[in-house]
Amino acid sequence: MLFRIIDSLLSVGVDTKQRLRDLYLRDDRVWVVMLSMGKDSSCMASLVWDMLRNLEPAQRRKDVHFITSDTRCEVPAMLQYVRKNVRMMRDAAREQGLPIKVHLAEPDMEQRFFYQVLGKGNPPPNEKTRFRWCSDKMKIQPTESLVRDLSSHFTVLDEFDAVMLLGVRTQESATRANSIRKHSLDEDYFAKHATFPRILVYHPIRDWSSDDVWAFLLNYNSGVMPWGVESYELHALYSDASGECPLTQPDGKQAKTCGGSRFGCWTCCYVGSEDKMLGNLIESGDEAIRPLYYWKRTLYYMRNDVRFRLPIRRRQQGNLPNDHLITFSFLEPEESEVAYVPGSITIYARKLLLETLLYIQEQSGLELIDDDEVKAIVRCWREESGRSYAVEELRTRPMPRINHLSLLANGEVNQKVSDFDGPLPSKMITVSSEQLLEFYERFNSEYSGVVWIPTSDYKTVIEVEVPHYEEKHSLWW
């Protein structure tokens, strides 16, 4: 039974390759193949590659651009896997005489995660954030910039100048299926591109299931992708990230596959404080991930901890008039009566996070952040504060275990998300605008054991005495 299923799925692969062949030979439009190096895009790339390899040399008359991205925050094992694939794809395409050009899109310095969070102090998106700036800056913008540069060299044809292949499937999720339907054109497997109107989108594996993808990757060509990487290496990565990875059972019933596991940035706070992907990698034996897991979880809690956030957002600091202070309303509607949403992460906290990140890099041997980004981060601190911060002053150190403290708008402890039992000592104090800014500058650079919550009255702040975060010490190492 199982062999008949596999034969059927391999037949689907042959049909898909035939459609790809017909599309490639139809016209002179350049192809752009978007890859994440996950299972779906690897399956698609294998189909495209094998189709090109089976053409006569004279038929390979137009280039096929493979584009993948490196956010610089991928899980180390996945980052190594992506870079290995890029290197082997380039070598194999050259050796096999195929018109495949492999491109790696990377964020510029100012688009990088650590520059934005540790340099500029921008809080990372969490599960309640409406706009995920990290995806836009680290992946979407660099990739679109590369496509835009390539498209400037495309031959201008009639309606579309190029074809973009995406390895998306309707069975991935209801959201994905709706997105595919929303952009689909009348012709099967084709869609319009939301950003590039002169690029035609093609979904070659749109109707494949997760089991279809794995059966093809693990059985076609003895489980070796056309550029030489073994599919079982990718399968092992998914297995480690999801904790289990059975394929279709012998009786033909669908079993849970690796397709549900998430591969992404290890720094991602959007998934919440408990990252199942990182947790599963640790459980599978990857101990190098453990300090990354705790660093990310600490960042998640520091993100909204009043001890590590400025009392107001950076853009408001230059708008403090002498006669009144604007009302700070940055709250979700359902929380507007009780919550207090502070400003940027303080330089003090950014420095702590950077020094502990450098410690992890030093102890683990993993490549997490390079010297140029460290220099750029410290330069941000100098420009923001006017103080003489220097790279040489940084000291690597393990992260103290930080218990979480969140306050309500009235200065009381938010018991729902804090590790503290209230109340904390607080008092109302009267200040001028100049004194308020002085408070902010001091709070930005040092930990003083107090926080200030501004009220709508420009002369009044709530000063709250808070416990020191080093009451509990790290148990990581």
What labels would you give this structure?
3-stranded antiparallel β-sheet; single chain; disordered C terminus; alpha/beta; 14 helices; disordered N terminus; about 475 residues; about 40% helix
Structure characterization notes:
The chain contains 14 helices and 9 strands. 40% of the residues lie in helices and 9% in strands. The radius of gyration is 26 Å and the shape is elongated. The strands form 2 sheets. Strands 3-2-1-4-6-5 form a 6-stranded mixed beta sheet, sandwiched between helices. Helix 2 (39-53) links the parallel strand 1 (30-34) and strand 2. The chain has 477 residues and is an alpha/beta fold.
Shape type: elongated
Question: Which structural class matches the secondary elements?
Answer: alpha/beta
- Summarize the biggest pleated sheet: 6 strands, mixed
The helix tally amounts to 14
Average pLDDT, all residues: 81
Strand tally is 9
Which regions are unreliable across 5 or more consecutive residues at pLDDT < 50?
A: 1-5, 243-260, 320-338, 471-477
Order of strands side by side in the largest beta sheet? Answer: 3-2-1-4-6-5
